[in-house]
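Session log. Operator J.P. requested a structure for one protein chain; no other inputs attached. Running the standard single-chain path with token output.
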Amino acid sequence: MERRAFYLDSKSRKRNFAIDSHLLVARHFFPPLKKNGASPTEWECISSRAPRHTGRSVPMQKWILFALATGLTTSGMAAPKLVLAGDSTVATVSKPRKDRPDLAGWGQMLPDFLTPEATVVNHARGGTSTKSFRALGLWDRVLAEKPDYVLIQFGHNDQPGKGPDRETDPAGSYRENLRQFIREARAIQARPVLVTSVARRVYENGRLTSSLGPYAEAVKAVASETGVPVVDLHRTSFLLFDQRGEKFSQQTYGPSAEDRTHFNSEGARMVARLVAEQLQRVVPELAPHIRLAPPPPAGSPFEIKLNTVTRGYDGETCWVHPRAGAIPGATPTVVLTMQKLLMSGSDIFYALNDTRTGDLGQTWSPIRQHDDTLGRRQEPGGVVIAASDFTPKWHAQSGRLLGIGHTVRYAGDKVMHNRPRETSWSVYDETTRTWSAWDTLKLPDEAKFFNCGAGSVQRVDLDNGEILLPVYLKAEADKYYRVTVLRCAFDGKELRYLGQGGELFLESGRGVYEPSLTRFQGRFYLTLRNDTDGYVAVSDDGLNYGPIQPWRYTDGESLGNYNTQQHWISRPDALYLVYTRKGARNDHVFRHRAPLFMARVDVEKMAVMRGTETVLVPERGARLGNFAIAEVSENETWVTVAEWMQCMSPNVIIPPENPFGADNSVFSARILWR
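Structure written below.
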């Protein structure tokens, strides 16, 4: 694990930082400061794998010297030491059994979610209860560590049937044992944190059951009476296993087909994440040391600020398709559109709404629904048509904000499978803050344009005002979608078709669709969605493209993006791809559509540079696949996305109370370029 060493160079009299695996220790305690400066103090970086480095202190303020002596990190926060007390579900498994070679406890994985300066010491042992843990002398070892925090989880082996050396009464002795742990931890200035027992994966009639409820309730009662923080792991793990179902939970998290209590390494890591997510809320001072997503790679030419536009939902509908367009100005005005989804159906969308900000997302106007201009419409035969997958973008030549998407038709609140689809568009009036009634792009009367939409795409506006608009299309009898780029004109009032480029196709899944286009250093780059892979193609004129190729890392390995969108961020000196992918410990997320990543593209190899990959929006159990890019200014780019509150079967709707805290947040990831 990396450690941060901080020493003083007496020659340059500057603070120097070294990031390495060494621990910084004080050789002498600081004596009082003298009037003419500080007494010299020697520091050493000690490691069995590296040479020793020493330095002499220089005159500094007393608080800085104290910070160094007491282990404060360079961020000014004390480096915490967490010690764990618990049973086998917490314990580190150094020698797993042959029948369960991947056995692990969540305490073993907790360091994965902490910053490097935090220390975890795991004294949990399999088979122990609140009674036997003390009798075996393990609690004395916990106290001897002189911890800052003690995390305590027992219950599995306190239950009836475990024998007199371990059993406790959840209404009596179990509670008293917890109280004694708390008193003794506080006596050595450690802060106790109680953790309710992780749920077992035992199901009846397809739903999770639990016999640990009385012990979990006892933990919460003791925490309340003593003022101790509590991580309710029983509740969050129960929600996770129940939501995902028996087959997925057991195959993904269990160490064997029969073991319903313990975890493989992936299951232990997931439970450790549940603990870390709650720790940052119930112990706020630990929040700076909890890292649910890795930081951007060192040397990245940007920083990321994740803002929340709105959050919360009713369990029946949720916000989707948040996409922003920026109106230029000294401080740009950003208009964000989105719409509600009926979660009991598939792709059932309602009228478009908008909200705007004039202070770069610090405040937002009330959300307004535009039923009259951007709402649903009735067609003959009871058919309902709606505009959806709408993306606004500033059109510089006309000085207007132009939004483009496509239509979707419903019969009885179900998507019509064989239906015409049009490219829809609308224009924003900055003065009245309203949108024109959505209209459709008039295309040639040809069979291939029967189903032709520009939903969720990224367009390129040329210097002469023409628009290169990627679309996907197919004739009524076609099986596969094709992709082409339309050349369009826009005069500030009407979007008109001028022509089209070549067509790209792939006879796989549903073909290729939801394309996104960008221009970088004189060439054009087009992404394409496919059911089993993401693809890319390159063009010199923006209309005619070379062969499509699947996305890969520069080492040749598949990117792992499939059945969802990819979008572009073009900078003067670099091209970036924004995407989701599998292989990010996200098997529990629908189509692996979270977290949301960004990485630089090697345009010579047309491949993603793995070492530049960073998380823009962390995953909280909900998918993040429908997102958009907004160029707010030359120094700022936004990626907007909502937590889509539907997931895989058996339980399609993510309830408001869920294990990771997903709440239909609409995020704006602000990328601030250096």
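Operator note: Residues 1-76 have pLDDT under 50 and may be disordered.
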